[in-house]
Amino acid sequence: MMKYLREFIKGIWRENPVLVLMLGMCPTLATTSNGSNALGMGLATTFVLTCSNLAISSIRKIVPGKIRIPCYIVVIAAFVTVVDLLMQAYTGALYKALGIFIPLIVVNCIVLGRAEAFASKHGLAESFLDGLGMGCGFTLALTFIGLVREFLGAGTLFSVHIVSGNSAAFSVMGQAPGGFIVMGFILAGMNFLNMRRANKEGRTFVNPVDMDCRHCMICKISHDPAGKE
Questions:
Q1: Does the structure show a pLDDT above 70 at 207?
Q2: Which residues lie below 8 Å from residue 168, measured CB to CB, with a gap of 6+?
Q3: pLDDT > 70: what percent of the chain?
Q4: Which among 108, 110, 171, 183 is placed 20 to 30 Å from 219, CA to CA?
C-alpha cells in the first residue's frame, strides 16, 4: 500500500513536473494568466496522462522496441482527441481560451516522458497512480501560478473580485514575463524550504540524483532507438 501511495504523492511535491522537473513550460507560462484557464489545462492534461499511462502499460509487452515511441504518440493523440472534442462540446469558452494548447498536449514532454520512463516498465496500478499523481501535481502547480497571476493582475480569484476598486492593474502578470516572475518566486520558496529542512536534519541540501538531466529517459531515445539497455 505504501508503495502505491508513494507513486501517487511523488508527483505532487518531490517530483512535481513543473516546479521540480521543469517540464511543460510552454503551457505553464501561456495558460496560467488566470486560475480558470490554468485549472482547465491541468485537468485536461491529467486525463490524458492517466489514460495514456494505463493504455501504454497494458500494451507494453506487445509493442516492438523499434516503434514504441510512434505507438505511444498514437495512444496519447487518441486521448487528446477525446479531450479536445469533449471540451469543444461542453466547455466552449474554456476551449477557445486555451486554443492550440489542447491539441499540443500530444507533444507535452510530461506525457511522453511518463509513458517512456514509467508506464512502459510498470504494471497497471502503478502506472495509473503515477499518471494521476503527476497530473495532480501539474494541475496544482498551474492553478497556483494562475491564481497568483490573476490576483496580482486583476484583483480576482477565478473571476471573483477579491480586491474592490482595483483600478491600477499589474498588467505584466497577464503576459509571459509575469509567469516567469511568479515561477521564480515559487522556486525560490521551495528551495528555501528544502534547505531549511536539510539544515534541521544536519545535512546539506542537494538535488536528488535521479533528477539530474543526465538520467532523463527521453534523452536516451535518440541514442538508443531500439530500446536496448
A1: no
A2: none
A3: 87
A4: 183
The neighbour count for residue 126, using CB atoms within 10 Å, is 19
Q: What angle do CA 21, 173, 34 make, to 5 degrees?
A: 75
Buried b / exposed e over 164-178, threshold 16 CB at 10 Å, is eeeeeeeeebbeeeb
Distance CA 20, CA 114 (A): 15
Terminal C-alpha separation, the chain? 30
- The reported pLDDT for the residue numbered 229 is 43
Whole-angstrom distance, CA of residue 139 vs CA of residue 94: 15
Extract long-range pairs of 152-157: CB within 8 Å, 24+ residues apart. Answer: 152/178, 152/182, 153/33, 153/178, 154/34, 156/34, 157/35
Do the beta carbons of residue 57 and residue 123 sit within 8 Å?
Answer: yes
Percent share of the chain, pLDDT over 90 = 55
- DSSP element (H, E) containing 196: helix 176-200
Q: pLDDT category, 91, cuts 50, 70, 90?
A: very high
The string of pLDDT tens digits covering residues 62-73 is: 999 899 999 999
Backbone φ and ψ of 26, nearest 5°: -60, -55
Grid cell 492517466 in the structure block, residue: 50
With a CB cutoff of 8 Å and minimum separation 6, the contacts of 137 are 11, 12, 13, 15, 16, 17, 18, 19
